[in-house]
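Supplementary Methods, section 5.1.

A reviewer requested that the exact input to the structure prediction be made available. We therefore reproduce it here, unchanged from the version used in the analyses.
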Amino acid sequence: MSAERTLLTDELKSWIGREVSYPAREELGRASIRYFAMALADDNPLYRDDAYAQEAGHPSLVAPPTFVVETCQYADRPPNHHGYIGHGWDLPIEGCRMIRAGNAYEFIRPVLPSDRVSVTWTLEDMVERPSSRGGSQLFVSSVARHYDADGELLAVNRETLVYQPLEGGT
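The structure derived from this sequence is encoded token-by-token as follows.
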């Protein structure tokens, strides 16, 4: 990079490979699934009607696919300063804004109200790249693996975050 500051410090590089696991705290529950489907304005009967879901080959109603990767029911802590209670790396990066740049999901099986979901997050990589606005930006790649109480993989969420220096940031 040029005379611009380097975002990818040795301290940040030491974070690559870190893992954090969150154990299942409780069953997901029917109400959570119903509320999530309502928030999506998705009235698919698979998400609210046991008989319909059973006719479709499921043991009970199921959750919308993204429910398992978007729920933070594994969290047991107070919200952060943005009101978020889910996983965050809290990387030591100052003078930058964080942008959620994308997610790639893989769903292994539908999630049931009786599932207890545990999550393991792994910080896979960090890459510094030039920004079209000048300077550089930092791309952080993580993967979350969601498991049921028997250790069966339910879903994988690959997430990319981008840290961009603020104007006048140091």
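The chain is about 15% helix and 30% strand. These observations are discussed further in the main text.
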